[in-house]
Batch of 2 targets.
Target 1
Amino acid sequence: MKSKALRRNRLTGYTFLLPNILGFLIFICFPVCASFLISFTEWNGFGEIKFAGLSNYTRLWSDETFRISLLNSLIMTAVSVPATLILAILAAVALNKGLKGVKIFRTAIFLPHITATIAVAVVWQLIYNPTMGPLNGFLRSLGIDNPPTWLASTEWALFSVIVVSIWHSIGYYMVLYLAGLQGIPKDLYEAAEIDGAGKVSQFRNITLPMLSPVIFFTVIMGIINSFKVFDLVFVLTRGGPGRSTHMLVYDIYETAFQRYEYGYASAMAYVLFAIILVITLIQFRGQKRWVNYS
Amino acid sequence: MKKSLKLAMTGSLLVGLLAGCGSNGETAGEKNTTSSGEEAAPVHLKATVLPDDLETFKTAYAEFSKENPNIEVEFETIPQKQYYEKLRMQLSSGNDIDLFGGNMDVFLDTGVLEPLDDSIKNAGVDVSGYGPLYDSLKVNGKVYGLPYRKSNWMLYYNKNLFDQAGVPYPSDDMTWNEFRDLAKKMTKGEGVDKIYGAFLQPWAQTWYMQGVQTGASIIDKDLSTFKAGLQFRLDMEKDGSMMGWAEQITTSAHYNSAFQKGNVAMNLIGDWHVAQLRQAEAEKKINFDWDVVPVPHPDGVAVNTSLATPVSLMVNSKSKHKEEAFKVIEFMSGAKGAKQFAAKGFLTGYMNDDIRKTYIGDGSLKPKNIHYFVEQKEYPEYPLLPGVKNILVQSIYMQEGELALTGAETVDQAIDKIGERVASEWAEKYANDYKAGK
């Protein structure tokens, strides 16, 4: 009797899940598996698929554009993730208090995240405009005669893209941190205050440890998102000038859809997958030391 | 409901039988809802063409169907920016496109291009109208498409600005150095009111053009001829007579809006700009007078030597109606189709006196000296081989040229680097399998 009801329950459950699982199998699982197989072949989208063994992977070693893209992606991640998260925590802590107009500030910081990337990029292109842009206008008024040309300069382009990406994603992480902050019991702070702890020490010894699960989550998501960056680069610089802002996903896009080397592009995608996987595994191992789930 | 279904089914069966390609008539009969009549059922073809050419194809098709009432063609298009990406995708997924237009080189590696040599021979097509273009389009000695139009480079100038400055109009025999001097002379003012002597679109073509004019090719082993053009562009920027590369790319500057704004004296761009300016005139967006002269040339190169890119029509080798598809191509890229395209202001692959006259018109439309277009000696803008456009023109030449123009590399370094990258990123893959021309 009981097992029959259980079975029927299960059936209902799976039926409800079916649309989602089907979608996952067809649109995610199948392409992911297929591209893994394609990564060992040479294929331009037409005709026969030639088995190429590991040659696509060995070719990556001598591919200069891939090396540049990988390096750019690593720099981007190393700079933008810590900067974004630190600024987001500070913003969250500042806006967690019931100050006047706090909602306006929260909205203002969150707004970039929900704005279309194209619009964001166009506005930043104007800001960065070397001759007419407000940024260089400001720098010139400070007495700097030859301000950088930002997106048009090989030295500054990557930095400029990173700044836009930080600005674009702070809001999202801030909201996560705000939610985390709401969950910290007030009595912890009260007790600390009675013990004579200052604001800084409260932040270090209560806020940060209590927030650590959220921080752990945001670090992982931040790194993944940063490696995945594509649209911003695509609209802001198209990887230029030269290849100074070429990123991994942009390289994959170019290889697959402009050079029509689907096998090689799939190999790149799997290298990217491996990098993210390894970094994430390392973090899961390391979390025991600093993430506090109590 | 039932009746029309039956009709459609018999129609599709008929088509399948008559076309003689098995019983699988599902695709051919799909749109064939009109009754087939007493004569042979029409063959239905699908054609995908560039958005700018769609209208003209439809006009020309009206004439074509008078001669070939049994061939129905349904023209479709894809937005310009994704044209090649999407079309390749559709062709690879077995979409039943019978013929399509575009730059032939993009499809050479796919195996979907049907060689047309036999059809051309059997139909007795007069290929002399294509001039030297016919042979330069051959790949490994075979013809894979016929050019229905082409894009050639020209120098446009704003007559009003020259009048105001009291400077004589650009001559039809100008070296690049003379062009540079003239641009300097025409440059005036500062900031928003600045009048620029010239505008060179931030494409690699606008600098590597000078090398190609001397007969060099961008896949050559020795690329030293291309140094002069890159240095030239740098010098022009230093003169201040044109907008710098950095500013152009950060403001997404565009030759069309730049020239229409009225503060650019000379604009180096392709023949399609004629149509853009005529349209702007019709919409009363511009109020200055303009004309064209041949592009400047390097010392020792013949006057009016220009670069051209043919746009072809090709047959899908998987089409069930190759014969009919070839008929469409023969018509569209031949004398009759060319006349329609010429009348709309397109430069056509096929040329004869009649088409030349149609293209030049009765003089009521600008530019006054449009005849320069049909008198050009032309080199292909880039060799029509797979990967050249995407890998060389749009990535390697673009990226390394950019480094020189933003000061991150010297001209010599950039050209050396281009040579290295052409060898490792393109030649290794394609140079042995594909040869342009006869």
Note: The radius of gyration of chain B is 24 Å.
Target 2
Amino acid sequence: MTVVWIVLKILVVTAFIQLAVAYLILLERKIAAYIQQRIGPNRAGWHGILQPIADGVKFLLKEDFVPESANKFLHALAPAIAMVTAVMAFAVVPFGPTDPSDPDAPQFVIAPGIDVGLLYIFSVSSLAVYAVILGGWASNNKYSFLGGLRSAAQVISYEIPLGLAVLGVILLARSLNLEQIVAAQADRVWFVFYQPLGFLIFLAAAFAETNRAPFDLPECEQELVGGYHTEYSGMKFALFFLGEYTHIITVSYLTAILFFGGWDLPFIVSADDRGFLAGLLKVLVLLVKAFCMIVFMMWVRWTLPRFRFDQLMRLAWKALIPLALLNLVLTAVLVHVARSFGLVDQFRVAVAYLWVIGAIVLVIAVGWLINASRRSAYGT
Amino acid sequence: MRPDDPDILWLEEPKLTLAERLYLPAIIEGLSVTGRVALQKKITRQYPDEPYRPEDPIKYRGVHRLNRDEQGRVKCVACFLCATACPAHCIDIVAAEAPWPDREKYPEHFVIDELRCIYCGMCEEACPVDAIELTSFYDLTGWTREEMIFDKEKLLSVYDQTAQQEPLRTAGFRLAQTPPDEAEEH
């Protein structure tokens, strides 16, 4: 019976993701249009509601062109990796309330009770960079290859601040299990108030990890034609796209879970609310939070210009990583002090307060340091 | 030129303030700009559904027409000035002796290749009798290239269709603005 349940959950979730991705592309086009004072797709169905289906049919019917000099096997493998890793990462992401202590209760996650959940997500989703590199290399096209190389450098660099920023949350929640992390925030203060700096670093790194603007250098049209997917067409191209947008969904859910309390929403739904309707409400709350994050990502994409590659690297190594390290050390010290004095809950407000002050001071200090190093670099 | 040449002006990269280097204030400002614009009125014109009509049809340079005189005859005197002026060489005229006593020649054939035309309006300017003019009709389509080669009858029919809403462009202007004696002085 449990096997049936799990298979059913996998089917529902993967099907839902495919559909969601199709409509996210429509949403992206609509947001782009609105920001440019256009209307956007509105021919297929009411306000373009059938546009994703038309796009899908077009992708399926298009010629699948493989360059003559491409490595056929790797060329076909790359989009598959992109899609598989993106979907696999979603396996441990709870999309609704879970109760690890009660195995009979409905668990809104494909694989409940994975203690290394966060670690698993990072390891699997960073495998997606293989798809980009392989796709770029196998195409035997210099622009594709450059896109792949950029992606490799970028993902390696931004994985570090991403992981370090999340470590602060892990210290506070005392668990890598995503369900436990949500439980640690339920009916208390969301982690974004304890970790404002960590949240900003996570946000920047997540944009880079998902290859979204302003960090979309692997596929910048103006320099690299299309980046790593220049030589892809038809359904293979669509798979890259699906993988990319699935990543966005995963990252948005992660942001909601790690920093915005998951399904918790004060005055609406709390951990004590049990039963089917409350469960459904929690799924909805989490969905809305993730959706807001997705809209924010798209809004940013159509607002900010792209970074130059050296600026991208400087931001990661000279700003985000030092800040993330300081964030980690300070969180560790504060958590240790609070716990050794037995001030677990009363201390939290004080910690939050300290954090805001500390973040401002830190940012100023690091800014001054960067300024100093710059001045010496220009020899003035 | 030596590096310490006094004529060289050495410029320093302007120093960014802390706020500028944090990116965050600029990011928030940018987001507020795009957010505001997204809520503004859309400028898209849904073209086939909301057709565009030139604001001043007299100034628009669209499909040509061959004007008729008061008796309904073609005004053209087959002088070839338009064909000579045409930079795209899209006007083809075959002249013949005029059947009417008021002019020597008239165009037996008058063909314009609307696909070759660049709609510059130089034929209109060159014409001494205001016989050829551009109309404001612009959404010209056809299934074949042959369809888009307009002969005399077709060009005259364009006049018949547009004569009501678009009066003669040049004639009225000349008569009203420049009296004949003044024109001779220039």
Note: The CA atoms of residues 170 and 178 of chain B lie 11 Å apart.
